[in-house]
Amino acid sequence: MIGQVLGHYRLLEKIGGGGMGEVFRARDDRLERDVALKIIRRASSADQDRIRRFEQEARAAAALSHPNILAIYDIGIYEGTPYIVSELLEGQTLRQRLFEGPLPVRQAADYGLQIAQGLIAAHEKHIVHRDLKPENLFITKGGRVKILDFGIAKLIPEEESVTDSVEGLTTQTKAGVVLGTVSYMSPEQLRGRLVDHRSDIFSLGAILYEMLSGRRAFHGDTNVDTITAVLKEEPAALVEIRPNIPAAFEPIVSHCLEKDSDCRFQSARDLAFALGTLTNVSTSKQQTVPLSTIKSRSRKRWVWVTAALVLAAACGVLSGVFVNRAQVKPAYTRLTFERGTIYSARFSSDGRNVIYGASWNGRPLQLYSTPSDSPLEHPLELGSAQLLALSSSNEMALELRGRHGSRLEFINGTLARAPLAGGAPREVLDEVRWADWDSKNELAVVHHVGGRSRLEYPIGKVLYETAGWISDLRVSPQDQRIAFLEHPALWDDRGSVCVVDMAGHKTELSSGWESEDGLAWSKGGDEIWFTATENGYNRALWAVTLTGKKRQLLSAPGGLTLQDVTPDGHALITFDNERLAMETSRDSGNNKGAQDLSWYDWTIATAVSRDGQWVLFEEASEPTGPNYTTSIRKLDGSPPIRLGDGSPGDLSPDGKWAVSVFTGKPEHITLLPIGTGEPRNISPVGIDHLQNGSTRFMPDGKRILFGGESAGRLRSYMVDVSGNNLRPVTPEGVVAKVVSPDGKYVAGWDPDLGIKLYPSLAANPVLSQVSILVLLPPNGPRTDQRYTFTVMVRCPSLCIALTWLRESSKWCANSRLLIAPVSSLWVQSL
């Protein structure tokens, strides 16, 4: 078969084989990438009914989009023999790993949790694996577990099935042959009874047992012996085989291996929750004390649509977590107990106190001080200031008069210094978003200038600059490097962990994180600790060395955000519980009869159809995978319809297409059909990075407006739906997200000039005037007021509203609206 071409796949080499067929490395000549191609052996494809079932099962498996499930790209028939095309993996199967012996306890728990998360995604689509075993689990070089052959197990010929009665099986010993499938099959499957998702849970329990003990849970010299063990015997206790296995594992594994399916975990989600509490246990019989703090921070973009964000917040100290990298049992001290949002927190120089900013129970942001071993807190009299950093001499770096950015940090504020002991803040620099002190009480800052983020140290000396955004700036203990989180997209917290030296040489240490928030140096300065996740928003605590070697320190059910680390190894962590919901109300906005239209936990509405019947939305929660999901649903509450991967932007004027940005590699714009049809990809030539959330259809439906970065410069572009005629429509640094009803203009935010209009048909971007809808204080505008604008669109009208920065509480009571027309176009629109 080497060298043959199946469809547009050219076979390069054989890389494996098994009961279902042979696996080849192949070259996809159309997309120019290497893939894995599995040819189902002829015995499995002898009749048309089996081929039809193959196609049904393969399509079901291809519909699964989850980082712990092998991605299927294509299926086909070659000379009557079906084949499957999937992603090409590098690493080894779990079976190959088990040949080396049992796994470390933490690793076994982590792998078990990943498998359970993959099962959650499949079971929610009513797909059962039926043949879960170490041979069908692949461990990539990055430590990710992939479930193989999902939903296709029933394609194995009936003559090889083990669902016959025990009495009809041979008793011949297979010397030297690994007895595979029967050791992991559930009792109901062996008896030929109806099989559901709980059968996969039994199989996972047997796999967990083997990963921890190094032995099979059920085994015998013959098939009959093994099946009898599954049906009638109980495996030996884990601690009898491996005494240092934590006792907490025993009830979880036993609960998976119940003979009666009604007595097992009833869902993979329940099993995943149980395993999630054990991913950080040490090799001790003591159970890990769970994190008991709750807190929430917004993770994704600041949403310009009707949505509800449920926040619950608290803050905790994690004491002596990893001293000298020894695996010790963490101890926790909870510090806050009120409900609200914690924005930032730092240890005092002696580690005895914690300074943090929080908004409790709907009150404005306030700075507090609390002992690190006590929940007693007292407010600091500094008004609504954001804490950025605390120096070794207990001097605070604050941000004053900032407004909320894409997450719960503050932007467009003024950097100020203030002693913790008391005193008025002294203003230093405008447009500062992050800051940190070095050991000599000098400041490093992230300075926003001309639409770009500059890392300056000392202030005025630019070490690094980006069109994206920089967060969590921290100077190393030796003042030799500055670590930070870099985010390429302005409205997304995806990104990488980076470090820059004093000569301005930047190094990327760890990348590919879907959400990252929180960073600090370890006590010796040889590692950078950070909280991030590759999927969903439940961030874990990680560490990375300056050579890029990564390890996980801590995870828990829910998300973690690292705030600070003391020189003796104490970590200050907030525990996140967050949800972004989408609701609709048709009763004059008084919330009567409001209906929750959310799908999972992070639902973002992006467009409503012109007939007011459908809403296009993004789902960015963990079950949807790392590249988000573009979906649509009726406003009457009908089930959502998944259109495809990507971050959506808009619906076409005729309602037949949705446009989205695929955030994986390579990035591209995708046109997704609302009804029948195939997706169409647009890859603008010369665009290095696409900005999700900025794609819009023009009113004629023939052109698309989008934000893109080329050579480090961000601006808006126009492209035909065919992918041709790419051209810029705004100057560099300006992204437009609003289109006038007649399609002649787009509105964008210029960092220096404010909101401006740009003709969509002009050869070069030219500024135009704009009328604005302005929210004014009751006594009229103030000359010292700094104005910023928020753009909101409800087709077919356009509204541009002023967002105020100072004395907002005084404005809320009796503010007034004023229309200030400048051009007839915008008067008509308003």
Structural summary, described in words:
It is built from 11 helices and 56 strands. It starts with a strand and ends with a helix. Among the domains are: 82 residues, Phosphorylase Kinase, domain 1 (2-Layer Sandwich); 185 residues, Transferase(Phosphotransferase) domain 1 (Transferase(Phosphotransferase), domain 1); 273 residues, Neuraminidase (6 Propeller). The strands form 15 sheets. Strands 17-18-21-22-23-24-25 form a 7-stranded antiparallel β-sheet, with no helix packed on it. It has 830 residues and is mostly beta strands.
In CATH, what is the class of the domain at 308-580? Mainly Beta
CATH fold-level assignment of the domain at 308-580: Neuraminidase
What is the percentage of strand-forming residues?
35-45%
Q: Give the proportion of residues in helices.
A: 10-25%
Rg, nearest Å: 29 Å
Strands ordered across the widest β-sheet: 17-18-21-22-23-24-25
Note poorly predicted spans.
153-180, 280-315, 319-326, 766-830
- CATH homologous superfamily descriptor of the domain at 308-580: TolB, C-terminal domain
- End-to-end CA span: 67 Å
**Mean pLDDT metric:** 77
Number of strands: 56
CATH architecture of the domain at 308-580: 6 Propeller
Q: What's the shape?
A: globular
Task: Count up the helices.
Answer: 11
* Main sheet characteristics: 7 strands, antiparallel
- Structural class of the secondary elements? mainly beta
How is the topology of this model organized?
Elements: E1 5-6, E2 9-17, E3 21-28, E4 33-40, H1 48-62, E5 72-78, E6 81-86, E7 91-93, H2 94-98, H3 105-123, E8 137-140, E9 145-147, H4 187-190, H5 197-213, H6 223-232, H7 238-241, H8 249-256, H9 268-276, E10 308-312, E11 316-319, E12 331-334, E13 340-347, E14 353-360, E15 366-371, E16 378-379, E17 386-390, E18 395-400, E19 403-404, E20 410-411, E21 413-419, E22 426-437, E23 443-449, E24 452-456, E25 462-466, E26 469-475, E27 481-487, E28 495-501, E29 506-513, E30 515-521, E31 527-533, E32 540-545, E33 550-554, E34 559-565, E35 571-581, E36 583-584, E37 595-596, E38 603-608, E39 614-619, E40 629-634, E41 641-645, E42 647-651, E43 657-662, E44 668-673, E45 680-682, E46 689-697, E47 703-710, E48 713-720, E49 727-728, E50 736-739, E51 745-750, E52 754-759, E53 772-776, E54 788-794, E55 797-803, H10 808-811, E56 816-820, H11 824-829
Antiparallel strand pairs: 1-2, 2-3, 3-4, 4-6, 5-6, 7-8, 8-9, 10-35, 11-12, 11-35, 13-14, 14-15, 15-16, 17-18, 18-21, 19-20, 21-22, 22-23, 23-24, 24-25, 26-27, 27-28, 28-29, 30-31, 31-32, 32-33, 34-35, 36-37, 38-39, 39-40, 40-41, 42-43, 43-44, 44-45, 46-47, 47-48, 48-49, 50-51, 51-52, 53-56, ...
Helix pairs in contact: 3-5, 3-9, 5-8
